[in-house]
Amino acid sequence: MLERPLAEEYGSHFEPYVEKVPDVDLAFLLESQIEECIQLLSGVSEEQSKFRYAEGKWSLKEVLGHIADTERIMSYRLLRVARGDKTPLPGFEENLFVAHSQADTRSINDLLQDFAAVRIATLSLFRQLDDEAWMRVGHASGHDTTARAIAYIIAGHAIHHMGIMKDRYLSAIQDQ
Q1: Residue pair 36/161 in contact by the 8 Å Cβ criterion
Q2: Residue burial 2-15, b: 16+ Cβ < 10 Å; e: rest
Q3: Can you tell me the distance from the alpha carbon of 107 to that of 103, in angstroms, rounded to the nearest whole number?
Q4: Average pLDDT for residues 106-111, to the nearest whole number?
Q5: CA 19 to mean position of chain CA atoms
Q6: pTM here?
Q7: With contact defined as beta carbons under 8 Å apart, do 119 and 71 qualify?
Q8: How far is residue 35 from each of residues 14, 48, 119, 129, 161, measured CA to CA in Å?
Q9: Which of 58, 70, 83, 106 is geometrically suited to a Cys-Cys bond with 62, CB 3.0 to 4.6 A?
Q10: Running DSSP on this structure, what letter comes out for residue 46?
């Protein structure tokens, strides 16, 4: 079981994500999030999936696309750090990614399949890393970070956004 990273293993702006991860086997959690996300959005129509809970906020589809895009970036960081690459990795502008994602033109099912595919690839990488790889340190978004911290950030980011989907999107859609 991969141990929880220490606070000095990642930038403090990632702390809310790491803190959301329960003390369970991380690989199991990552795998279970695929089905959790599918179940969460299974009853959402194409019209409902374009819902925005406030002006200027992302649509439900855009949130789902954001989870997948962020995981792509974080998995890449995980690969680089775990393989010992010390090259500083830049941050990314999430709003720019969402604006150019075309998520609202895709079906909710396509976006769910995309998230599942990205997560399966992340799990494949996750399962090939040994104890030494998990503790390697790289530099991303202006902060030193370990591979294991990145894995926790991936899981916590999904938890965070699935919570937002439940609380701000699906509850409002059900009230309509």
Answers
A1: no
A2: eebbeeebbbeebe
A3: 8
A4: 98
A5: 14
A6: 0.97
A7: yes
A8: 24, 20, 11, 24, 15
A9: 58
A10: T
